Amino acid sequence: MRTPMLAANWKMNKTVAEATAFTTAFLPLVADVADAEIVLAPPFTALAAVAAACRGSDVAAAAQNVHWEPGGAFTGEVSLAMVRDAGASHVIVGHSERRHLFGEDDDAVNRKTRAVLAAGLTPIVCIGETLADREADETAAVLDRQIDGGLAGLAADDVESIVVAYEPVWAIGTGRTATPEQAQQAHAHVRRRLAALAGGAAADRCRLLYGGSVKPANAADLSAQPDVDGALVGGASLDPRSFAKIVDTCRKAV
Ligand code: 13P
């Protein structure tokens, strides 16, 4: 049995005051949730404030990115020691915006994923095809390449403990959600590929989140799919009531 995870990716949104206000309003709404893991990923500047506000609750804080090097001359980058010091337990790795807007490739995703694991934190590794990939019938090949490249060298134990987020690029921020059938088909494919990489038991335990225009209205149908173990939510996670509604809907449907 996989514990569902609902993760909020705030992207480049919210000041420290706004992030703290969200967290203060959100925590009471999910105080009774014991059957799902909830993660908030604020921008770096608000990470310590959100982690501090979450202390004493079951809600975890995540960084949206990290650099794999432990320190040094890397202007603008943030290390794992820094995100851990800020109170994060999870790190989003390889988000499609990082890949497509900032040139992150599978090799960088792999270095980051391995560094996050070595630091004892949980990576949420994002994969997903573009619309052009899908229209060219390349979805499976793209996912395979991202899985094989991004997760190269991981032991079965590692694969079991990471979280993989399937986020079709054409569904991110577009209001165009994958149908539950499309999500299930992609997730089942990802799980088969993980099984080939790390064995069936590890693949079975690995949580696979769906991301891309998840809203309170579509969260139940997506989460009800057998290989969908929760959601990585962008826009609809910016409002505490909306994200709490998604948490509630998903954990009941999974
Ligand atoms: P939206 O929910 O805004 O489509 O964003 C999804 C996403 O990219 C989460 O990481």
Strand arrangement across the biggest beta sheet:
1-2-3-4-5-6-7-8
- The backbone outline, from C-alpha atoms, is globular
CATH architecture: Alpha-Beta Barrel
Rg, Cα atoms, Å: 17 Å
Structural class: alpha/beta
What is the third-level CATH name, the topology? TIM Barrel
* Number of E strands: 8
Q: Topology as H/E string?
A: EHEHEHEHHEHHHEHHEHEH
Low-confidence stretches: none
Please tally the helical runs, counting DSSP H or I stretches of 4 or more residues.
Answer: 12
Task: Report the helical percentage.
Answer: 40-55%
Q: Provide the list of bound ligands, each named once.
A: 1,3-dihydroxyacetonephosphate
Instruction: Assess the beta-strand content as a share of residues.
Output: 5-15%
Number of domains: 1
Query: Can you give the mean pLDDT?
Result: 97
The biggest sheet amounts to: 8 strands, parallel, barrel
The level 1 CATH classification is Alpha Beta
The span between the termini is: 10 Å
CATH superfamily heading: Aldolase class I
Features:
binds 1,3-dihydroxyacetonephosphate; 254 residues; alpha/beta; TIM Barrel; 8-stranded parallel β-barrel; 12 helices
